[in-house]
Amino acid sequence: MPRVKYQEALGLEVKRGRPAKGNKPSKKELLELYVIESKPNREVAEKIGCTKDMIFRFLKEYAIETRGPVKGTKLWNYDLETLEKCMKDKVPENLLGRLAFQRVRFDIM
């Protein structure tokens, strides 16, 4: 059974959660920065002077559709040998050298 605070028992208004940190973003600011300029939540929060969580909350409150997560590449579904074989057939030779260098660099990490 949840604990009843004495203010609630007396019929007084009880504040819940932490107080907001920073400025409240306006709908106009969010539309301009998030939708029109396509800035990420963190940049919008820095520019307005609030937290990224406030940005999420007010996007929901103002009924502004959020962007979904960035979809990853499908290249991870293929094994490396198959990709190398396809690249040799279709990619110019000078570009293959740069890609091979990048592969060596990632194998070391």
Question: What series of H and E elements makes up the topology?
Answer: HHHHHH
The number of domains is 2
> Which structural class matches the secondary elements?
mainly alpha
Largest sheet: none
Helix content: 55-70%
Measured between the Cα atoms of the first and last residue, the distance is 52 Å
**Quaternary organisation:** single chain
In angstroms, what is the radius of gyration?
25 Å
Task: Work out the helix count.
Answer: 6
Can you walk me through this structure?
The protein is mainly alpha-helical and about 110 residues long. It has two domains: about 20-70; about 75-109, no CATH class. The protein is about 55% helix and about 0% strand. It contains six helices and no strands. The chain has helices at about 5-10, 25-35, 40-50, 50-60, 80-90, 95-109. The longest helix has 16 residues, at about 95-109. It is elongated, with a radius of gyration of 25 Å. It starts with 5 loop residues before the first helix and ends with a helix. Residues about 105-109 have low confidence and may be disordered.
